[in-house]
Design brief:
membrane; 2 domains; alpha+beta; 9 strands; transmembrane; transmembrane helix; two-stranded antiparallel sheet; seven-stranded antiparallel sheet; rod-shaped
């Protein structure tokens, strides 16, 4: 976040400097108010660029075996450019390499989900999926495992076509 702030300030200074050079090259015929306007437009442009490239930069750094399951795009009237092209504000990734199952219950799979958000720390949550029953249980609060591998947890139904369930059960 700090690096993006520095980059935004530098972009504003660079655009103001370019406008000052253009003003000097034209014999100081340009209005002086163009310098702060150029600085402001440069800073806004850099902010927009950072918003749209955050997802690509973050997803490119994911380790091998971690795949993106779900993207959440945002549109906002406060950012009018997002009405034409929304940007990815957060996403969920699944550690497919670390998906585990019990030999007695191969249709149930335990996977780590990673929740990434712009300006948010990465959160990890272990989820248990029942591939045959299309249900899931969050294991953050703990769960009790029986000797046969079954889990006493709060199961919830997963909607048909859920991309996370498809990724975990396809592993």
């Amino acid at each position: 976040m700090f690096i993006e702030l520095i980059a935004t300030v530098v972009a504003g200074i660079a655009c103001a400097g370019i406008m000052m050079l253009l003003n000097h090259a034209t014999g100081r015929r340009l209005p002086r108010w163009l310098i702060p306007v150029a600085a402001g437009l440069g800073m806004i442009g850099m902010t927009i660029s950072n918003e749209y490239t955050w997802f690509d930069r973050t997803s490119a750094r994911l380790p091998e075996g971690v795949e993106i399951a779900l993207n959440v795009e945002e549109r906002s009237w406060l950012r009018p450019w997002t009405m034409a092209r929304p940007y990815t504000k957060r996403f969920v990734a699944v550690d497919r390499a670390g998906v585990r199952s019990h030999p007695g219950l191969p249709e149930q799979r335990l996977a780590d989900l990673y929740f990434f958000g712009r300006w948010s720390p990465v959160n990890r949550a272990p989820m248990l999926y029942d591939c045959d029953g299309a249900r899931a249980a969050l294991l953050i609060d703990g769960a009790e495992f029986a000797a046969d591998g079954s889990v006493a947890a709060d199961w919830g139904a997963v909607p048909p076509g859920d991309p996370i369930l498809a990724l975990v059960c396809g592993a």
